[in-house]
Write a structure and sequence with these properties.
Length: 287
């Protein structure tokens, strides 16, 4: 695929992992898709809480499109891709790009940029937690609620001050069922997802893209969700919400695989399959 460029966002619950861990994976992606890859780290929480990583990831895409000639790429053929919390950042970049027409957030009179070609989200964390009651979650790979609360608080505030609040389900009845029903109703009836924000005051669509109430005009989207992953509901609900708003979406429901398994692409059959799904999607949809 000539002059197609991927911008990859790293996973790690917004707090750890860096681009060095992804060199081999991105090389394999570049070869399998026949494209160029931009692999850059982003600022990590808690030292750099939201929105630092989101803005940085977006500005990298803006820089790439603004320097298309020197990079030897077509600025109209840029794709953002991420897995796990990196999937959330990739989705945030797509939202920021749509809302700002690709303009730099750091310049007053910045040039408009063409829309992104696609976003590719692999087991994305799009609402901070998976509050849906996914009974298929593999207990060996499930992350504890306490740990997720702590990392999420680091991401939002730079400290652990929100951990106890985020982990407290009182006041919403049976919170997982409440959350699932609310999203189901929103997707079914077309109710603005902004209603979801009444659950927690900290949410907004750039922190967690499942909160987005205006997804129209987002780029073509590939979402891969693992049934045994505790972010599976995020992948499924986001796919349904985008489809409801006339965004072209391919949702791949995988029976095997787990969160963050792409880093084990050399020994994991499910990770190798995910890379093949991405390569096939690029060839079928973007070429």
């Amino acid at each position: 695929v000539e002059d197609l460029l991927f911008k990859h966002c790293c996973t790690g619950m917004f707090c750890y992992y860096n681009q060095r861990m992804y060199h081999n994976l991105m090389y394999k992606l570049a070869v399998s898709c026949g494209c160029k890859v931009v692999l850059c780290g982003q600022k990590l929480a808690p030292e750099f809480p939201f929105p630092n990583a989101a803005i940085e990831a977006y500005q990298i895409v803006n820089w790439v499109q603004s320097n298309d000639v020197s990079l030897g790429i077509n600025k109209k053929r840029v794709v953002v891709v991420g897995d796990g919390s990196g999937g959330a950042l990739a989705a945030t970049v797509a939202l920021l790009h749509k809302d700002n027409q690709g303009k730099s957030l750091l310049e007053e009179h910045a040039d408009l940029q063409p829309p992104l070609s696609a976003q590719i989200l692999i087991s994305p964390v799009l609402q901070g937690f998976s509050y849906g009651e996914n009974t298929s979650i593999n207990p060996c790979t499930k992350v504890s609620s306490d740990k997720k609360s702590r990392f999420l608080s680091y991401y939002l505030t730079g400290d652990s001050s929100l951990a106890s609040i985020l982990g407290d389900q009182e006041g919403c009845g049976e919170y997982p069922a409440f959350w699932k029903a609310l999203i189901d109703d929103a997707v079914q009836a077309g109710t603005p997802v902004s209603q979801l924000r009444r659950c927690r005051g900290v949410w907004n669509k750039y922190a967690f893209p499942l909160m987005c109430d205006d997804p129209v005009s987002l780029p073509d989207t590939l979402v891969i969700g693992y049934i045994e992953d505790d972010s599976f509901d995020d992948a499924r609900y986001y796919s349904e919400w985008l489809q409801h708003n006339q965004v072209r979406v391919k949702f791949v429901r995988e029976l095997s695989g787990y969160h963050g398994n792409l880093l084990l692409h050399g020994i994991s059959a499910s990770a190798a399959k995910a890379l093949q799904i991405v390569a096939d999607y690029v060839e079928e949809t973007i070429c």
